[in-house]
UniProtKB/TrEMBL annotation:
Protein name per its UniProtKB record: Alpha/beta hydrolase
Lineage top rank: taxon: Bacteria
Keywords: Hydrolase
UniProt xrefs under Pfam families: Abhydrolase_6
GO molecular function list: hydrolase activity
AB hydrolase-1 domain span: 60-331
UniProt entry tagged with the keyword Cell division: no
Length: 351
């Protein structure tokens, strides 16, 4: 266990959905106790077979806000806050693929209770891969949305493609103490390479601005996740998610605890269900490595290990379902109709 045990201060908050379109479409926020952790999730109306969505690290179910309603027209959609995120339990010292896999085993068995399509973005995609490899009776198909397959394995993650590793290291250092952290500190010193010789850096004045806004919010609304509605949506969601995020989740990637239970090549070789690989933009910068989740060789290697998989390249940033929601929904529907078929195929007259 961690030397700094702590609990999610937002775990017991009301499950009222404040996104009007999602609420009106029939989604409800619920909690599920696995016996080890409590998982927060939203569930849509029973309009078809189940689709389970897993957000990227630092993300919550709200990252799917632009696609929940259109997906729910033909599916029973679930979106989960994995442990360490959102209103789900924080478990410092207990983050690994095996821990998250146990949570998913319980959720699919006791909540979904039918073979489901499991779709995940980034680390959520790796968790979807874990499910496809280890729970064949519970997973009808899997969708890896710009998942860091191969690139998030040691030693490559730390030694070759360091950009994401360094970002997680920075996060763990700046937000690692949940009792004394300024969310704006995460942005202090952050850089994004824009070419081989030039980087963009978050300006100090902007960090100071965010720090003041966060303090003002917490003074006015103590005990609530930080949610500043006048900020751009992506920044607003990032701040809210960071306020509900256990930085030990990131620290587990940095110190090596997380990797227990998932060998990427071995898992892919055991995938027998239909598999969709969505691949966003990427590039490589000297000294920083891969800017993105995987390169073209990684994608080709997945294809060799899972010959029956479908690959789609989408010009989009890492969170495809947020930056290109319509394209994401189209890709999912095409996959379900043409590759999964059966009860997941589009019924006549329904989009």
């Amino acid at each position: 266990m961690s030397a700094y045990p702590y609990h999610n201060p937002y775990e017991g908050l009301s499950g009222t959905i404040d996104i009007k379109a999602v609420r009106e479409a029939g989604f409800q926020e619920r909690r599920f106790d696995t016996g080890t952790v409590r998982l927060n999730y939203v569930a849509g109306p029973d309009n078809g077979p189940p689709l389970v969505l897993l957000a990227a690290q630092m993300g919550t179910w709200e990252s799917y806000r632009r696609v929940l309603v259109p997906l729910s027209r033909r599916l029973r959609v679930y979106a989960i806050d994995v442990r360490g995120h959102g209103k789900s339990s924080w478990t410092p010292g207990e983050y690994s693929w095996n821990h998250l896999g146990a949570d998913m085993t319980a959720f699919l068995s006791e909540v979904v209770r039918a073979p489901a399509v499991v779709a995940g973005n980034s680390s959520g995609g790796l968790l979807a891969l874990w499910c496809a490899a280890n729970l064949p009776g519970r997973v009808a198909a899997a969708i890896l949305e710009d998942a860091p397959v191969f690139s998030a394995e040691m030693p490559r993650f730390r030694d070759r493609d360091r950009f994401v590793y360094e970002g997680l290291e920075h996060l763990a250092e700046t937000l690692g103490d949940p009792h004394d952290r300024d969310l704006a500190d995460y942005f202090r010193g952050l850089t994004l390479p824009v070419s081989e010789t030039r980087e963009k850096r978050v300006p100090d004045w902007f960090v100071s601005f965010l720090s003041r806004r966060v303090r003002a919010f917490r003074t006015r609304r103590p005990g609530l996740p930080v949610d500043i509605p006048y900020l751009p949506l992506k920044l607003r969601l990032l701040l809210k998610c960071l306020s509900m995020y256990d930085a030990d989740f990131a620290r587990a990637f940095v110190d090596g605890r997380f990797y227990e239970g998932l060998d990427h090549a071995d898992a892919l070789a055991r995938v027998s269900c239909p598999l969709l690989v969505l691949h966003g933009d990427w590039r490589r910068v000297p000294g920083r490595g891969l800017i993105g989740a995987m390169d073209d060789e990684d994608a080709a290697r997945i294809g060799r290990l899972v010959p029956h998989s479908r690959y789609m390249k989408i010009k989009a940033n890492h969170v495809i379902h947020m930056s290109r929601p319509r394209r994401y929904v189209e890709a999912v529907n095409t996959f379900l109709t043409e590759d999964v078929k059966g009860e997941f195929a589009t019924p006549a007259g329904r989009a």
